[in-house]
Amino acid sequence: xxxxxxxxTKSQEIFAxxxxxxxxxxxxxxxxxxxxxxxxIVFDRVKDAYIWDVDGNQYIDYVGTWGPAxxxxxxxxxxxxxxxxxxxxxxxxxxxxxENVLAEMVIDAVPSIEMVRFVNSGTEACMAVLRxxxxxxxxxxxxxxxxxxxxxxxxxxxxxxxGVATLGLPDSPGVPKSATMNTLTAPYNDLEAVKAxxxxxxxxxxxxxxxxVVGNAGFITPDTGFLEGLRxxxxxxxxxxxxxxxxxxxxxxxxxxxxxxxxxxxxxxxGKVIGGGLPVxxxxxxxxxxxxxxxxxxxxxxxxxxxxxxAMTAGIKTLELLQRxxxxxxxxxxxxxxxxxxxxxxxETGHPACGGHISxxxxxxFTCGPVHNYEDAKKSDMAKFGRFHRGMLERGVxxxxxxxxxxxxxxxxxxxxxxxxxxxxxEVLSSL
Length: 432
Ligand SMILES: *Cc1c(COP(=O)(O)O)cnc(C)c1O
Prior knowledge:
The chain is of the alpha/beta class and 432 residues long. The chain has 14 helices and 16 strands. The chain is globular.
């Protein structure tokens, strides 16, 4: 079962060549394994809950291409639907009925969404929603939370160091101060900090955007009353509440975090699952707000490939599969088994740890916790996580290569996959 001497020669060759061709050898930074050390494996193919690298090694996958593969990789019904759609052409750049179908599914599923606009990524959805928040309220400032990721647009790349929590200092060279000076930040789960920002900036804050369950600072859940509190504060101040459900949408419940927690934002961004593995993002919300988007209204936003028929097809089929009875119950059952198992094994092998899960999203920090925000998450033992990650990888379990990413399960994970993962985790954690 356990193979600790996997050969990854071809992966190493390909990745070495890639580094000369593309910055860091990758198309997106976390893939380079910088925060866990060691070399990434180069994929050859994916199927169900598994991936195979170019050297022929098989892994149980808990990344699921960062979320979209919730039905399992290359689901036969998704592939069949895509084959059929492919015969009709790869891009229309014109209206198609597929957009109506997916739009109706999204509107039916997500409580806040009365109208939706499709884009090509989560980043695009968040950029567009920010413009819309500002246009609708005629205000420029927004509040985001430390550790929450809303794509790589300038205005969201703000690091909130402890002493300069509200200064809006850019996180990356190339981001001008002018792009982030209207981005205010607060610690996650801290309603008082949000209230203070509203008090300090009367009638200037367009809205609050957040991951209703955080996945980009590791897995962090909202404290009881936090989402409700944000709903109340924003309403009181004539500001909008925006849930970035790019990760949580269709994952922690069919209707996302807003269904799960019963808190309805004004606007919502989606991505990942909604494209079923093809590039799709979306934003939507109240009809009066969405009606401001061009060409219905004056707020410009466009896209050559937006509403692409292949992407719509993969999304429609993926959501259809998720609507079948018992899917979320199953996801919750296996994910609970995994998350509880990992915590118990960590405890038995003497490693302080905390973590949890909601439906098909889970996390494990190497700190006794509790973790309420990014500052808490940073107390996790990164070096240990790196060794844990490498040990799991060498034994055929592919985890997200960063402590600050959530883990994902899918409908294709079997109880046997979870059992094997836990057996491997016991071996690795015993050896650390
Ligand atoms: C992944 C993610 C994004 C960005 O989506 P991309 O498709 O990678 O551009 C935005 N917000 C959240 C919460 C995400 O998890």
